[in-house]
Amino acid sequence: MKSAKEKMLAGEPFLDQGAELFQERQQAKVILQQYNSLDPTRIKARNQLLKGLFAKTGSRFFIEPPFRCDYGYNIEIGENFYANYNLCILDGAAVIIGDDVMIAPNVSLFTAGHPIDPTLRVAGWEFSKPIRIGHKVWIGGNTVVNPGVQIGDNSVIGSGSVVTKDIPANVIAAGNPCRVIREITERDKQYYYKDESYAQ
């Protein structure tokens, strides 16, 4: 019989009623308490803590404290990763982030979900689905990315978005629910912020 952890990692419904997952979350909290309370100048020490917690990191990354996650061992970040304040990752399933990704403040990546049926939900059933974020993605502040979502390379997610479905590569997407607004084109290289004459 599979354990709750094995079911969680396999993306199957599970009941988190044992000690294993609870203890692993507690262990991550201890590490993150150290991370979030370190002197701001101790960047190398902070990064060493995350290298020990995450499944994979690049050689260059910077996550502004405070930062929160459930386990850490399901998180992979690529080279030149930057996340601003209050990044929250519920990583019951894999969260795989590519190279050159920028994340603004107050962004939440949620792999965890619960049943729609109230009886099953109250009974404690849950599930986790992976999140994948491609290379050179920029995610605006106060965005939520839901379980199972993939965001393609180079795309920009506007502030305040709730991303419930996959977003393709090379687009600007925003809203609740998040929808594609337009493709990113060569014309965007001419404007630092945005071309007000460009149809939105």
Could you give a quick summary of the protein structure above?
Keywords: Acyltransferase, Repeat, Transferase. Belongs to the transferase hexapeptide repeat family. The chain is an alpha/beta fold.
Write up this protein:
There is one protein chain. It contains four helices and 19 strands. It is α/β, with parallel strands linked by helices. The chain has one domain (4-183): Hexapeptide repeat proteins (UDP N-Acetylglucosamine Acyltransferase, domain 1, 3 Solenoid), CATH 2.160.10.10. A hairpin with a 4-residue loop joins strand 18 (171-174) and strand 19 (179-183). It is globular.
Observed structural traits:
4 helices, 27% strand, single chain, Hexapep_transf_CS, seven-stranded mixed β-sheet, alpha/beta, EC 2.3.1.-, UDP N-Acetylglucosamine Acyltransferase, domain 1, 200 residues, Acetyltransferase
Radius of gyration: 18 Å
Bulk shape:
globular
Number of domains: 1
Q: What is the H level of CATH, i.e. the homologous superfamily? A: Hexapeptide repeat proteins
- What is the CATH level 1 assignment? Mainly Beta
- Structural class call reads alpha/beta
Give the arrangement of secondary structure elements.
Layout: H1 4-9, E1 14-15, H2 20-37, H3 43-53, E2 61-63, E3 67-69, E4 75-77, E5 81-83, E6 87-90, E7 95-97, E8 102-103, E9 108-110, E10 112-113, H4 118-122, E11 125-128, E12 131-133, E13 138-139, E14 144-145, E15 150-151, E16 156-157, E17 162-163, E18 171-174, E19 179-183
Parallel strand pairs: 2-5, 3-6, 4-7, 5-8, 6-9, 7-12, 8-13, 9-14, 12-15, 13-16, 14-17, 16-18
Antiparallel strand pairs: 1-11, 10-11, 18-19
Helix pairs in contact: 2-3
